[in-house]
Design a protein that fits this description.
Length: 88
């Protein structure tokens, strides 16, 4: 079980999401899972996320329900002892 769950809600952030995910993966602390919550984003954000090959990444899809609902979905799926929220 990971110590930290990093939760990133994703909706229309294709311009920034690659740098966001890369910044999490570049951390020196490695005991984490990265939950990417696809809030039915109409752009290419999720396709960009799918290009990262790391077993700590989990992409979760949901119908568009907004930022708070995406964060709550991340919380429900989190396995870490601590939660860290990061915007895309």
């Amino acid at each position: 079980m990971p110590k930290v769950s990093v939760i990133i809600p994703v909706y229309n952030v294709e311009k920034y999401i690659a740098a966001t995910v890369a910044s999490v993966l570049a951390q020196t602390y490695t005991d984490f899972e990265l939950l990417i919550i696809d809030d039915e984003s109409p752009d290419h954000s999720i396709q960009i996320c799918q290009q990262f090959a790391d077993t700590r990444i989990k992409i979760i899809h949901q119908k568009n329900r907004g930022l708070a609902a995406a964060r709550n979905t991340g919380i429900r799926h989190a396995r870490g002892e601590y939660l860290a929220f990061l915007d895309g």
